[in-house]
Amino acid sequence: MSTSREAQAFTTELRHALEQAADAARAAAMSAYMKRHFAFFGIPKPARAALQKPVFALLGRNPAPSLLTAIAQGLWQYPERECQYAGCDLLIRHAARLEAGDLQAVADLITQRSWWDTVDALATRVVGELAARHPALLPTLDAWAVDDNLWLRRSALLYALHHGPATDRNRLQAALDANLGHGDFFIRKAMGWALRQFARHDPDWVRHYLASRGEALSGLTRREAARHL
Predict the structure, then answer these.
(1) 191, 159 in Cβ contact below 8 A?
(2) What angle do the packed helices 169-178 and 203-213 form, to 10 degrees?
(3) What residues form DSSP beta bridges with 80?
(4) Is the pTM of this model over 0.85?
(5) Are the C-beta atoms of residues 83 and 15 closer than 8 Å to each other?
(6) Per CATH, domain 1-97 is 1.10.10.10
(7) What's domain 137-229's architecture?
(8) Is the pLDDT of residue 1 over 80?
(9) Is the dihedral of CA 163, 136, 101, 80 positive or negative?
(10) Which end of the chain, N or C, is surrounded by fewer C-beta atoms within 10 Å?
(11) Is 36 left (phi over 0), alpha (psi -120 to 50) or beta?
């Protein structure tokens, strides 16, 4: 079976499994929480994870990267947000199998049906994994920090969120500085989140950054960054 046909069969089965658990009342509440940007089946995360598990198992332990990205792209075509969540979960589950060349497919997902829920999952758990294993991708991520697309910018600020002490301070600083004065809430929030998380590992570096940038940092960024200092 070709990759495209296998991916289509998988996405169809997964969506069917999710559809069987639809809850209209819960779906309305979930859609309202997400500013009505998306339709929902109305499935809470634990229930969704249970529904996904046997379907994910059909792929075995070592699915081809091309199949994984094709499935995710297929799930992105459905209107229900749980389908995109399932795509994120699948890529996170097999992030260690993805290759450097798969970054473009992930970027396409980041820039389609974009909102913080899927973007943050892909940036921190998938792009971050790729960046850690493939340093040749770092210049591309540097360019994302000044991209016209808001969500690629946010991803550039957040991809190293879980790199801990191995975080490249120079790259983090460059991404932050490139977005000083940016007017969008999601960028200012991401800047604060990145600093807050890194403060767990190097609080002195974060304190110095906050002091040195002064009023160039938005109040939102500063409050987020200093929350645990």
Answers:
(1) no
(2) 30
(3) 39
(4) yes
(5) yes
(6) no
(7) Alpha Horseshoe (1.25)
(8) no
(9) positive
(10) N
(11) left
